[in-house]
Amino acid sequence: MSLTFDDGTFIRNEMAPVLPPPKQRIGPIAWMRENLFSGIFNTVLTLLGILLVIWVVPPFVRFMFLDAVWTGENREACLGPQVGACWPFIEAKFGQLIYGFYPIAERWRVDIVFAAGALLLVPLLVPSFPFKRVGSLLFFVVYPVVAFVLLTGGNIDASAFLLERFGLIGPLVGDVQVAGINLAFWVDFALTALLFMAAIGGLIAVLGGNGRSAARTTLFVFLALGVVIFCWDVDVGLDYVETRQWGGLLVTLVIAVTGIVASLPLGILLALGRRSQMPVVRLLSVIFIEFWRGVPLITVLFFATYMLPLFLPQGTNPDALLRALVGVALFSAAYMAEVVRGGLQAISKGQYEGAMAVGLTWSQMMRLIILPQALTLVIPGIVNSFISLFKDTTLVLIVSIFDFLGQLRAAFTDPNWATPVTLYTGFAFAGVVYFFFCFGMSRYSLFVERRLNTSHRH
Amino acid sequence: MTDLAGPVGGHEKSSFINDPKVRSIGLQLIALIVVIFLGWSFAENARDNLAAQKIATGFGFLDNTAGFGINQTLIPYSETSTYGRAFVVGLLNTILVAVVGIFLATIIGFLVGIGRLSKNFMVRTISTVYVEVLRNLPPLFQILFWYLAVLSAMPGPRNSISLFGEVFISNRGIIIPRPLFGDGAGIVLWSIGFALLGSILFRHWAASRQEETGRRLPVLWVSLALFIGLPLAAMIATGFPISFETPVLKGFNFAGGIQVIPEFVALTVALATYTAAFIAENVRAGIQSVSHGQTEAAHSLGLRNGQTLRLVVIPQAMRVIIPPLTSQYLNLTKNSSLAVGIGYPDLVAVFAGTSLNQTGQAIEIIAITMGVYLLLSIITAIIMNAYNKRVALVER
Q1: ipTM above 0.95, yes or no
Q2: To bridge B347 with a disulfide, which of B90, B277, B322, B338 should be the other Cys (CB 3.0-4.6 Å)?
Q3: What is the pTM of this model?
Q4: Chain B residues with CB inside 8 Å of A439's CB?
């Protein structure tokens, strides 16, 4: 609609309808022109890329699904000219890959540990789920104790704590066992606790501090320790399964979770030590961190396996898995410390000054102001450390602990399943499992990072 | 914060253990005592244990005959050689993997890293998939995959894959021609050294020339000409003293040529592709850290895309890339110890593996092995830090 005057002038009094952009600028064809074929060089690259995809993807899909064998009893099923993945092989070896040589009748215990772990972890990972404090307590404190009892069978040989080592308790109570519990040990433990409580409380009081509070803290520490030892000591009727029989994904997860749970607090302590103003503490932290970071994990595992037993008193022969765990935890703690240090360095001085200005003590300042910010900043780094720790668990294979990859390697040697595709099937399966864990962790870290990004950075 | 906690009022009950200074000294004393006690008890235990197990101590074992063979040696070595010699063989093998691996990883890493930022959808996607897959699989898994699934599945020497009839790839590894040096070959090798020296000098001269006149000289072409021309001239002058011995199939295996053992190929390829995924991410982060204004400015000056990338973006990105690149190089070197998983005779496999099992001298051998890696780490760190200092941005 428009107005037209006698002299031919023409005034539009409405907006003209918006025309769609030219065909060349929108739609799939324009997208392809822009993203795939903008110039000769790009076109060549695109064509090469398409060739690569055709070369890799269809054979992969055919191997994994279309040509794959899904049922069978032994190698006969997977022999043939055009056979893809041999999934019955994985099915037959599944128990071995997950549990190692854990006794078949006891595998329900591992299942419970897996299920409980997943059940406790999910509420922690979902941000909207309430009861975070209870959840963390359950996962980081209760769960490890229960998992230890379930996996090993508990009932550890607790016979002497401190005083009994000097033969002071034995004559007093005799050799009494109640439900697999050695009475002498607990009398020993209780007396030791009281002794320490009195000594520390008295010392602090003499020096002019709050002796009562110090004594109470000591008692509390002993009480917590006592509860943990009691859980391990009491005979719940489970068979003992030595760690040599553990294997497969179980060992992979045990090492990874222990490493993660141990390395984070240890790493934070080391990072604080490295930034401390006390020269001795700083120097010790620096030496510790740089030493573990400078050597490969394999030498650390060799160290834990061959050298550590020489350093311990005669007769103590720590478990092979435990030794590897110590090595992995120390190694990853050093890396974690550097990640956390990065976060600490990024906190501006004003935050420290502000915390001091409101009268917080050093530990309050760290706990309430500095660490929450620093750790949030370095979440990607922390998760990266977790991922590399998870990948590094494969190295225990070299000191003869058969983790997931080790069991896979062992499965390859079974003549019942010796076919040309066995190897590829095994690698495909293991690859998918490792990728699932590592990629999952990295995606989760991205999610958390985005969620916690409350700052106003650009 | 030292003087903040001094007594304020007359009725202050606070004791001297609440004084931060006293606490700090006390804490440090406790830490020192704990460490010294641990070290002392470790030493005591080690002495008792060694005596009980009748294990020899000291480094005298290095002069004993090793008595085991090694299937790849860069220096002459036989079963009658000493443990000390075996150590050197292992160390050289480690360094070989590290150098070749770092070289390959850097090239792949830069290509993939730039590919992840490409405007081309296909290139971008493939690069992303490469990074995500390779990064999220354990390196030992990848090494085993290359060794067991790829190289073992290669055809035997009889049906080996041949490249131009000179290089043969089979399940025995890769066989390449062996250079034979005749009379005057030394002159040719020297000429390569001169070419290197010449191109470095020319580069310097070209840089100062550009400072003075603003004109850029074709450094790349001149260097290339030097590297091809000088040795070629030397070859002609000395009558082609360097020839190549082509490997020939004899019976069940190849005769002549240099055999690259499959363990080496698997280890190097796996480490290089694995580390390249991380380098690619560092490169991407580095390029993204260069502000877009720099690209716009370069374009408005009339530089083409390639020139912008080469002359403006990458030099600035290098500042961000170098430090993490250093740690990736170190990681690759340390990861080369995974060789022990497939039996490549590196330092850990030869020394901390076989030698340790034979002599039982765990303390000395593991200390030496760890010491070597620490030393390698420190040397790399010093070199890279020096380079880093040279290229670092000078701010006010």
Answers
A1: no
A2: B90
A3: 0.84
A4: 132, 136
